[in-house]
Inverse folding.
DNA sequence: GTGATCTTGTGAATACAAGCACTAGCGTCG
DNA sequence: CGACGCTAGTGCTTGTATTCACAAGATCAC
């Protein structure tokens, strides 16, 4: 019984960070307890969902009172694996890659960018916001040596699968893909994507359908 | 019966752009027909799902043969509302906003950036990649005048709700939010978000849980 | 203490999505 | 021209997520 195998649903996992941010705001404004209703309002979901989501973490609330903000924040950070840093590597030192490296929000939230990689030798050994650019030939070995946990792909679409393969070879277990293409990774590696064109097209769909029914 | 009210499920809508991209690749390589299986492989989903998704658009396939690539591409573009451009406005002319404006991928896919807005008077009247920056005081009127359909929020989190309100006031029906905060919009306005920190935290969760069970 | 009032935690109901497995229709080959 | 192979379309099953609604526990006032 060493393993608490209470399996947390995917949809819940995706909401935990939103609650986390809300809790951080509450700490800032020195609120010590919060009800599921208040939290729901802040996170933009309904209260029953908040309670069910939080119940997967354990029974950290108090009936009649609510949740202790700091305690819940701590438990949630622990569950999300945010009690320690996750070194991040960015593949592709172009516009997007540089913008991401320059963005302080990463390091600040426990995701320090420890290396960048590019296939363009002109860019190798450059420093971008203090982060050194390595050649992609050395990706696997360097990522492995630096203990990179999360890889960010910011290459053109055509190079994305290759970048993913190299990251996996370097022992990276999680990949965030910004290139507008589907990439595949072996089982046991997490993959998420951020695709602007896709988001805009989804918006376009709903807008089109709304307008045509007016 | 002027309205074909075949309601397309949200999950399907979110996949259509992925199919669309696959179809565009097939056109490039001069493939004229494609089976659900091939398309499924390209889009990274299973074949039954492809068939069901496409069936919401109509019966555009031919049994025993597959789908005509160009015809399906056209029908899907039409359904997604991509047969005409959607003017986009970006609020927040900082690092992210400028990067987005500089990125050609938008205009190229039918989402021309027609205006940017910022509250910083230093930035007003600047041209960023040929796009003029307006003051946020004029947001609603300018957006309305330019017929902006989609608004992109790239301001600090604290200004995001205000930006959304102004966009809505300007008649913008769809909003893509990059600020790491929950914003609310009136019914009838579509809202999607892109949140990097959130994505990283989700990856962190799975990585943490994988490692602890090894 | 007892009753009134909160608010959590959760079983049960409902809604939504995924996937299987079969049927129907097209094309081709013998 | 009939049989066979291929592939779209879809009813049905299964799984997952959301939401409701209420019992159980906590606090407070008196
Ligand atoms: N810039 C944006 O605002 C933006 C927005 C949305 C999506 N994207 C996507 O992000 C990706 C990067 O965009 P960008 O604007 O930074 O492009 P970019 O051309 O500025 O940068 C791409 C970088 O990747 C490098 N590269 C090429 N092949 C490589 C390989 N095999 N291995 C490693 N590095 C390689 C290039 O040398 C270059 O430095 C693209 O897929 C783009 O579609 C960008
Ligand atoms: N830069 C990145 O790589 C990155 C990555 C992820 C998320 N983000 C998020 O995107 C947002 C913008 O990031 P950034 O790096 O561009 O920040 P930034 O500070 O460079 O730019 C913010 C811009 O918004 C403007 N602004 C401030 N208040 C405003 C208001 N009320 N109305 C209109 N404009 C206003 C500022 O003048 C500034 O030009 C932030 O919320 C950030 O968290 C950025």
């Amino acid at each position: 019984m060493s393993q608490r195998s209470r399996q947390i649903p995917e949809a819940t996992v995706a909401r935990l960070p939103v609650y986390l941010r809300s809790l951080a705001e509450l700490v800032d404004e020195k609120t010590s307890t919060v009800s599921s209703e208040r939290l729901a309002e802040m996170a933009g979901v309904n209260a029953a969902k908040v309670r069910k989501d939080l119940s997967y973490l354990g029974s950290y609330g108090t009936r009649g009172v609510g949740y202790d903000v700091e305690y819940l924040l701590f438990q949630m950070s622990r569950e999300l694996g945010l009690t320690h840093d996750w070194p991040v590597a960015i593949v592709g030192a172009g516009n997007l890659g540089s913008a991401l490296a320059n963005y302080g929000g990463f390091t600040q939230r426990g995701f320090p960018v420890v290396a960048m990689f590019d296939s363009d030798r002109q860019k190798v050994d450059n420093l971008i916001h203090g982060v050194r650019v390595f050649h992609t030939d050395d990706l696997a070995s360097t990522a492995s040596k630096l203990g990179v946990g999360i890889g960010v792909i910011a290459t053109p679409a055509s190079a994305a699968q290759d970048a993913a393969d190299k990251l996996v070879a370097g022992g990276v277990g999680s990949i965030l893909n910004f290139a507008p293409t589907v990439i595949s990774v072996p089982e046991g590696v997490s993959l998420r994507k951020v695709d602007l064109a896709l988001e805009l097209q989804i918006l376009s769909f709903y807008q089109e359908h709304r307008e045509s029914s007016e």
In short: Chain B has nine helices and ten strands.
